[in-house]
Amino acid sequence: MANIMIRKDAAGSYVFYLPKRDLEDSIVSMEFDTPEKWGGEIKLNNGGTYLIEPQALPPRFPISLRARRLDAAE
Amino acid sequence: MSVLTREETEALIQEVLEVYPDKAKKDRAKHLAVNDPSVEQSKKCITSNRKSLPGVMTIRGCAYAGSKGVVWGPVKDMIHISHGPVGCGQYSRAGRRNYYVGVTGINSFGTMNFTSDFQEKDIVFGGDKKLAKLINEVEQLFPLHKGITVQSECPIGLIGDDIEAVSKKGAKDIEKPIVPVRCEGFRGVSQSLGHHIANDAVRDWVLGNRDGSTAFESTPYDVTIIGDYNIGGDAWASRILLEEMGLRVIAQWSGDGTLAEMENTPKAKLNLLHCYRSMNYISRHMEEKYGIPYIEYNFFGPTKIAEALRNIAAFFDDHIKEGAERVIAKYQPMMQAVIDKYKPRLQGKKVMLYVGGLRPRHVIGAYEDLGMEVVGTGYEFGHGDDYDRTIKEMGNATLLYDDITGFEFEEFVKKVKPDLVGSGIKEKYVFQKMGIPLRQMHSWDYSGPYHGYDGFAIFARDMDMALSNPCWSKITPPWKKKDEATELPKAA
Ligand code: SF4
């Protein structure tokens, strides 16, 4: 499990940030993105995938979360 | 366009790599690249933030340098104790030229060096007692200081001292904040981790100190300058522009900054982030915890300044937007005069850069305003996100190099033949002896400021001064000049 932060960029799309490795990347797909259910498997632009426990849409961004790495890019 | 074609640049990289043994060659090859602005992600072409190869000359610093020297050092009303042997602090003392106002030794301590001066017995028996004594001594000798930071040098982590416990106890005794920073030099691959550790220490020990207090009245126009270390007065040259457009700058991080400013930062409406590399961490944290957005800006050269002022103003109402336009219009003629004066002298000159932090990409715009062209750039301790931002700024087929070694840099310069190199003191005399002017882009070569409109005028003058110095035509001694028509008759 890794601590990550998800924020929205100026265009309103999600950006992924992994402080431990200073990795910042855009999120290209997110399994669930509705007010009731949000998260699940997320795919990064660099090819990595992470899993965020599906939950209700966070009230505001950025938000720090725990995520599990399914497939890292490097 | 660069001077070399893509193929030529690639061939150059291969040629330079030739001297390395296979393993080293494979590693270094990942850090050198030919720029292609259409690439979206830097990691496809360049690797960064990796351990330097043993045996090569690297220009990097250590985590202690990142924390004490860069982030914490300029906070002027705190006393920063270099905890450990005397050298780390003494040999880097006051080297960064972070200007500040105040009376040194009374209420400001920027250029002083405080150290616990570890001896053999402290290594053997531990230095906690010494630190506790030191804290009391500091309190007696410099009663007007506002707080203390304990900047760990290598031995502290090695012998396992508990500086947190000593700091907590000391803080209670002297009733001022004491911040232990675990920035031992051996951590991480470069000073970059030191920035991160220092940011985390600010987050854990300083930022929340005034939460809930209403003593500080904020206005809707409060902004902060984050990641400007006031080198040669940079932050001042930036600050006046923001104030002129109607904003109120409530904190400077950390050039000419104070502890109180840091504690009040959560009251700001917008954080303006200049050096992304060293202070993005705390900006991200404030965005999450306090909902303060941050914006990266670039105050080098009139084109980028105008762009930045407009982007900043977009966060505020029409009053500020008008203010931004007014500021841009006011300085435009002055900047035009500077450009008219220097551009004809500098037009078409080629520059190679190798610096840290933000400059390898931020100063490109300023050079372009003068008609100069940056043909190669690289970071000492950049990360992937730095290169992501750099690729777009650089021309096609220009050189990118990460943590370049002394040998590679010399070879590149010999082949690319730039008219000017922008790097540090360690490179300066190597290149000047090769006949290539160099400006130190860490300390502005004891000049500055270079930020803001005022800074650009100085920047342009300095670049012209370096390039047009008559000494460069005297590099070849007269007796070696072949085409000299008047060959002296040989003595009979
Ligand atoms: S690496 Fe260690 S010993 Fe060297 S300057 Fe940094 S903190 Fe001091």
Description of the molecule:
The complex is a heterodimer of chains A (about 70) and B (about 500). Helices cover about 0% and strands about 60% of the residues of chain A. Chain A contains no helices and 6 strands. Chain A has a 6-stranded antiparallel beta barrel. Chain A is globular. The two termini of chain A are about 15 Å apart. In chain A, about 20% of the residues are buried. With about 500 residues, chain B is an alpha/beta fold. Chain B has 3 domains: about 1-60 and about 345-440, Nitrogenase molybdenum iron protein domain (Rossmann fold); about 65-190, Nitrogenase molybdenum iron protein domain (Rossmann fold); about 220-325, Nitrogenase molybdenum iron protein domain (Rossmann fold, 3-Layer(aba) Sandwich), CATH 3.40.50. A 6-stranded mixed sheet of chain B has the order 1-12-11-10-13-14, with helices on both faces. A 4-stranded parallel sheet of chain B has the order 3-2-4-5, with helices on both faces. In chain B, α4 (about 85-90) links the parallel β2 and β3. In chain B, α3 crosses α9, α6 (about 130-140) runs parallel beside α8 and α13 packs antiparallel against α14 (about 320-345). The model of chain B has no long low-confidence stretch (mean pLDDT about 95). The interface between A and B is medium-sized, with 15 and 15 residues. Bound molecules: iron/sulfur cluster (SF4). The site of iron/sulfur cluster has 6 residues of chain B, from loops.
Task: Briefly characterize the structure.
With 74 residues, chain A is an all-beta fold. Helices cover 0% and strands 62% of the residues of chain A.
